[in-house]
Amino acid sequence: xxxxxxxxxxxxxxxxxxxxxxxxxxxxxxxxxxxxxxxxxxxxxxxxxxxxxxxxxxxxxxxxxxxxxxxxxxxxxxxxxxxxxxxxxxxxxxxxxxxxxxxxxxxxxxxxxxxxxxxxxxxxxxxxxxxxxxxxxxxxxxxxxxxxxxxxxxxxxxxxxxxxxxxxxxxxxxxxxxxxxxxxxxxxxxxxxxxxxxxxxxxxxxxxxxxxxxxxxx
Length: 218
Prior knowledge:
The protein is an alpha/beta fold. The protein has helices at residues 22-34, 47-57, 73-83, 98-107, 119-130, 138-151, 155-159, 163-173, 178-185, 189-203, 208-215; strands at residues 13-18, 38-44, 61-65, 88-93, 111-114.
């Protein structure tokens, strides 16, 4: 698939890669080199190497292989969540089983794509997660929602939400990203993020995707 080769020097998404397959890692580096709105600020072959150096790179988005040698990608995400709370993590994997997906989301991943995703899909996911979305391959998203439906929510959880929090969650469930929600509600993007953090705490979930899935069963 083609993509634009000319970089826009303004507003580039800083992306780090954690992938042990050298061929795929170099392919991702090449994609980011030619992407218009993203740039590679770090590329690592293991979780251990990433945890040593990634903090200096200060990425906005991390592309994380789930099945790394030594420490797994899921464990690495859990560490990054504490040290780089503002970074957004997209899991890249050949695995689609529900247990791995659920574990990655619990660890703090924001999105989940299969490695066979087209270049355009990857670049769109980077932009989506950067502005507050939770990009996922469609069949993976169905697996996640199905698993949350089977678990079922506590009816009292949704009752804990304030009216504005319910409004934010309704927008998230409709596919709006943070900036769009901010525009609709006439508030700042940071205020939206604050609402989402409060929502996740009250619903006892780790991220906005879990919140949407749980809220949908209220």
